[in-house]
Amino acid sequence: MTTHWTDIGASESILEGSAIETLVGDQILAVFRSGGELFAMDGMCAHQGGPIAQGAVCDGCVTCPWHGWQYELSTGIQTINRQPLMRTFKVRESGGRIEVEIDG
Ligand code: FES
Question: Would the CB of 69 count as within 6 Å of ligand 1?
Fold first, then answer.
């Protein structure tokens, strides 16, 4: 298995305080811009598959819109049980584009 950077859109497609859901291969991703940084994690909540990209972001955490499970954006750790329930991915900006590093 190799990893490579995949273009997921223009920098301006994710403005500060917003997020998008996108599909890379068969991986649904939620990509956030918060506090001037980009974060990418599994787009489906570890609880029952809720749409994490639609969650509210506060203090570096996102809250699932379905039942309120909360995860750290940078680690995918669930804030109540402190377990890394959500996979996270590296994300960067290059030449006005946003790229995620993902297996493929
Ligand atoms: S599906 Fe996310 S908290 Fe239930």
Answer: yes
